[in-house]
Design goal:
The complex is a heterodimer of chains A (583) and B (320). Chain A has 26 helices and nine strands. Chain A has 583 residues and is an alpha/beta fold. Chain A is globular, with a radius of gyration of 29 Å. Chain B folds into three domains: 154 residues, Rossmann fold (3-Layer(aba) Sandwich); 61 residues, Orthogonal Bundle (Helicase, Ruva Protein, domain 3); 94 residues, Up-down Bundle (Zinc Finger, Delta Prime, domain 3), CATH 1.20.272. Chain B has a five-stranded parallel β-sheet, sandwiched between helices. In chain B, strands 6-7 form a two-stranded parallel ribbon. The mean pLDDT of chain B is 83. The chains are: A alpha/beta (583), B alpha/beta (320). At the A-B interface, α13, α14, α17, α18 and α19 of A face α1, α4, α9, α12 and α14 of B.
Chain lengths: 583, 320
């Protein structure tokens, strides 16, 4: 098979049925295109597809046009910029009757304009006006795509168009697509890698396929048995800490599959370091090198200050391009971190050490976001920075709320805080007092709580519980983060709570016990292993009953199954049926 | 909040900083030739208040429209600062006092990187006809020389007890709170010369006090700074050889309380002084570890790693 063809082009969907995800948007768009007939055009002659890069905006436009026997006349907004140029290209295309249409295949033209949000820079004066005038007069469907329409100058455009929003593709769907492509190409890539690509692509199909192709094709020439396998997480750490000279440790870094341009490995080492070195002097020395490595990463300046803070707290440190040239030196330093003799066995450590650097930010994300919002408002009211507000105003506010909530309310309204902030402050005031006292021991697989109203119920659902209506019991959705669920449930019900830990043999028995159902419409989920209600009927209009758990994804046929199930969405219009006959 | 309610409205109301106020008043006699100003000093000593007083004196009571208040540590990058200043300086200003410029108050300007400050210097030059700048910072050394030389610099000192106590007593009178002088002295001690947190303490204590009587016992119950306790816990745990536990406390500080690494180190530096059972040699080494960490935080990428490295060092110090 030719390797020069990019897979993104090769597997670009040609029919609506082949599109991935965004079922609602697809249906909306095809419905709009279906409204066009020879004699009548819909109210809005243009459709604006809005969504992040690579979610299939262009593909949707092309595939739907193809299905409905339209020909797409494409223009890239970056090619044609001025009003005159736009007129030149679109003028002829606008006339709906084309030579081909007499041949019977083609119904007419669809004007497809990609990336319109790129057009209206300073040098494109008039570009927007031209597009608007085309939309106004056009006797044929006009499809526009854009990544971001938040700017005010798109207000007119948004008014003139039917706006269809496309969302990021769910990682699980992406995995099934990637597996399908790999199966078609006869290439094998580690399942872990596919998942990683799907997750890190942030729902961008194009980049996910490109990444997978890069890896799969890069290895194509080598026979499977001889393939130099990259070291996975465990092997990397083992190699790094078991090496007794820097050279060997450095080679481990060369062979690792962990990307070194990010600080991923650094954090991994950071998490397990105190478990590996238990003697203070070794620990101090190892940490001293690790902190030098971190300074090195800071000098490179590629990753922004990661920290724990949500975006507004987190100020980008530098406004310059990263200096990759010093990466080798930084890696040399990294190789010295594990040079001392280890105190504990690495495999054992990897099993017991918690990944704090990942789990802590995850757990507190929402809280920090609330805190940030609050600090922003307080800072504006008392003429300080958020930092000062956080350190020397908010704690006092919390203390006032603890003492006297009525007076506190007056103060809050003088600071122009809104209800959400006040609710947060009240919960903060309470949170301190809660966890003390006798703990209530609960069984995570099903426990009862007194009725507390809808708000608390929703909060409990967000905290990671599900409600089993038949039994009238709450169930913990996932058992791998009981600590944080415990903490949040205790806060919500204002009573300390402790869950019974499941036996160490976490097998099918535990997972099978848990009832899985969508908590919005409480329908059962088909597969007991699924963690999420990916295709809940309230979420997508297709009412898709398709399981996307790891077992299903391992099967390369899963994509075909998915396509087969979601095909009924696109209704074949009557006209096309006639066309086909004629053809 | 009392800190807003009792913020001095004119320069004459400001209770402290006689030297700085005197200088500023002299400059404001001819407002048209007012230079850029740099106010530096520790938190809670009245820098922002003085800046706002200047604004009010120049622009009148509804000065908010004519003054651009920016916070260098909140605005994301110099690009945003530039855009906002540009937009602001293009509006023609008509002020009650007749000066022909707008006022930009840039708080926490020492938080800006050197690159950003160099850019700021350009901005100050290009918009000098339409804008005057009042820069506010904690450490004058954090501001690059070229900017310092373009400003008249005023240093602010921590408040003295007499000044702060007088101010707090006035507030108590206005709010009809019967305050024990000992309680006020205690509040001043807790705040360490920072009037903002002193007034905050006072307000919390007043809310808690019963029947409008504020005595020493009520004050000692107010412990709003849970973070400081946590930081002391963290230091103690590290010094006692419980590295993993102390690192967990660090994560709680950063994650749950939203503190940045630099704040943790700064507070740790203060709290270290309050740990009494530490020999002098150990104290010296501990302070050295803190200092090294503070430096590396400005250079590094991950604050959690840098603080952990510091804790590992303290762990070693404690074990010796």
């Amino acid at each position: 098979m030719s390797q020069t063809v990019s897979w993104t082009e090769k597997y670009r969907p040609t029919t609506v049925a082949m599109l991935l995800g965004n079922e609602e948007a697809v249906a909306q768009f095809t419905a709009w295109l279906n409204e066009w007939t020879d004699s009548r055009s819909p109210k809005k002659t243009a459709c604006l597809l809005v969504g992040p890069p690579g979610v299939g905006k262009t593909s949707l436009a092309r595939a739907a046009s193809n299905d409905l026997h339209y020909r797409t006349v494409e223009m890239n907004a970056s090619d044609v910029r001025t009003e005159k140029a736009i007129e030149n290209v679109l003028g002829p295309a606008r006339t709906s009757a084309t030579l081909d249409s007499y041949a019977g295949h083609i119904r007419g033209n669809v004007i497809l304009m990609d990336e319109v949000d790129g057009v209206f820079g300073r040098e494109d004066r008039g570009g927007l006006g031209a597009i608007l005038s085309i939309i106004e007069k056009s006797p044929v469907p006009v499809v526009l795509t854009a990544n971001n329409t938040e700017n005010e100058r798109f207000a007119d455009l948004m008014k003139a168009c039917l706006v269809v929003q496309l969302a990021e593709i769910r990682p699980r769907l992406l995995v099934s697509l990637l597996n399908h492509i790999l199966a078609q190409e006869g290439k094998a890539v580690q399942a872990r890698f596919v998942k990683e690509v799907a997750r890190s692509s942030h729902g961008d199909i194009r980049s996910a396929i490109n990444d997978v192709q890069a890896v799969a094709v890069g290895r194509a020439g080598e026979p499977v048995s001889k393939r130099t396998r990259e070291l996975d997480e465990k092997e990397t750490l083992k190699g790094l800490f078991e090496a007794n000279d820097v050279g060997r440790a450095r080679r481990v870094l060369d062979e690792t599959e962990i990307p070194l341009y990010r600080d991923e490995l650094l954090l991994l080492v950071h998490d397990i370091l105190p478990y590996i070195y238990t003697s203070p002097d070794k620990l101090a020395e190892a940490y001293a090198s690790l902190s030098r490595v971190d300074v090195g990463y800071g000098r490179i300046g590629a990753s922004r200050s990661r920290g724990m803070m949500p975006p507004p707290f987190n100020i980008p440190r530098r406004d310059r391009a990263p200096e990759w040239s010093i990466l080798p030196f930084v890696l040399n330093e990294l190789a010295t971190v594990g040079i001392l003799k280890v105190d504990n066995d690495i495999e054992h450590v990897m099993q017991i050490a918690p990944r704090v650097s990942l789990r802590v930010p995850e757990r507190y994300q929402y809280r920090l976001w609330q805190l940030d919002r609050l600090c922003g408002r307080v800072a504006r009211a008392v003429h300080t920075s958020k930092r000062i507000a956080l350190s020397s105003v908010v704690p006092f506010l919390v203390a006032v709320f603890q003492a006297d909530s009525e007076k506190a309310r007056d103060i809050a309204s003088s600071l122009e805080l809104d209800e959400q902030d006040i609710a947060f402050l009240i919960s903060e005031g309470k949170a301190e007092a809660v966890p003390k006292g006798l703990e209530q021991i609960l069984d995570p697989a099903g426990f009862k709580l007194p009725y507390m109203g809808k708000d608390k119920f929703v909060q409990l659902m967000r905290a990671g519980l599900t409600y089993d209506r038949k039994g009238g019991k709450f169930v913990v959705r996932r058992l791998d983060n009981l600590d944080s669920v415990e903490e949040r449930v205790s806060q919500i019900i204002s009573k300390p709570v402790k869950f019974k830990r499941p036996e160490q043999t976490v097998g099918e028995s535990v997972e099978g016990d848990i009832t899985k159902e969508c908590y919005v419409d409480s329908r059962p989920i088909i597969c007991a292993k699924c963690e999420f209600v990916d295709d809940c009927s309230t979420h997508t209009i297709s009412a898709l009953r398709f399981c996307l758990c790891d077992d299903t994804l391992a099967d390369p046929a899963s994509y075909d199954e998915y396509v087969a199930k979601r095909a009924p969405i696109s209704k074949t219009p009557k006209r096309t049926a006639r066309h086909r006959k004629r053809a | 909040m009392w800190i807003e309610k009792y913020r001095p409205k004119t320069l004459d109301d400001v209770v402290n900083q006689r030297d700085a106020i005197g200088g500023i008043k002299a400059l404001l006699k001819t407002p048209a030739t007012m230079p850029h100003m740099l106010l530096s000093g520790p938190p809670g000593t009245g820098k922002s208040t003085v800046a706002l007083c200047i604004a009010r004196q120049l622009m009148g009571d509804n000065f908010r429209r004519l003054v651009l208040e920016l916070n260098a540590s909140d605005e994301r990058g110099i690009g945003v600062v530039r855009e906002r200043i540009k937009g602001f300086s293009q509006v023609i200003q008509t002020t009650p006092s007749g000066v022909q410029f707008g006022l930009v108050i840039l708080d926490e300007s020492d938080e800006m990187t050197r690159d950003a400050q160099t850019a700021l210097r350009r901005i100050m030059e290009t918009s000098s006809r339409t804008c005057r700048f009042i820069l506010i910072c904690n450490y004058q050394s954090g501001i690059i020389e070229p900017i310092q030389s373009r400003c008249s610099v005023f240093r602010f000192r921590y408040l003295e007890e007499k000044e702060a106590a007088g101010f707090m007593t006035r507030i108590c009178k206005a709010e009809s709170v019967d305050a024990d002088p000992k309680a006020i002295a205690r509040i001043f001690e807790l705040s360490g010369g920072d009037l903002r947190s002193a007034i905050n303490y006072l307000q919390v204590a007043a809310v808690r006090s019963k029947g409008g009587k504020l005595d020493l016992a009520t004050v000692s119950k107010v412990v709003p700074a849970a973070e400081n306790e946590l930081i002391r816990d963290m230091l103690n745990l590290a010094l006692q050889g419980e590295f993993i536990k102390s690192r967990d406390v660090m994560y709680e500080l950063m994650g749950k309380h939203g503190l940045s690494g630099r704040e943790i180190v700064r507070t740790a530096n203060r709290e270290l002084g309050r740990i009494s059972d530490l020999s002098n040699e150990k104290r010296v080494e501990a302070v050295r570890a803190l200092g090294e960490c503070d430096f590396r935080l400005t250079q590094g990428a991950n604050e959690d790693i840098q603080i952990s490295a510091m804790l590992a060092q303290l762990n070693l110090v404690g074990r010796k």
